[in-house]
UniProtKB/TrEMBL annotation:
The chain crosses the membrane at residues 25-44, 50-71. The lineage of its organism: Bacteria, Bacillati, Bacillota, Bacilli, Bacillales. It comes from the Bacteria. This is Membrane protein YkvI. Keywords: Membrane, Transmembrane, Transmembrane helix.
């Protein structure tokens, strides 16, 4: 299942940057796959230790921005009236 997920993710990644069924798409997908394979040797534990707190902090920032925006938006709509 992991390889199936990786294949579809690299396919959609390549389709985002190049046109499907072209040589450029095949080359781009091949290099993206090779880079992804090389990065897979970094280690899952190290990746989780790096990204788990980072994503958590970004989530807290997003919550703060949403709260700030919810208080700021009614003030902007009053200015227009």
């Amino acid at each position: 299942m992991i390889f199936n997920t990786a294949t579809s993710m690299f396919y959609s990644f390549g389709a985002r940057f190049t046109k499907i069924e072209t040589t450029k798409f095949k080359v781009f997908s091949l290099f993206a796959g090779i880079i992804g394979f090389a990065l897979s040797f970094v280690g899952f534990t190290e990746l989780v230790a790096l990204f788990y707190p980072l994503i958590g902090y970004l989530g807290l920032v997003l919550i703060g921005v949403l709260i700030y925006t919810s208080f700021r938006m009614p003030a902007k709509t009053k200015e227009r009236d």
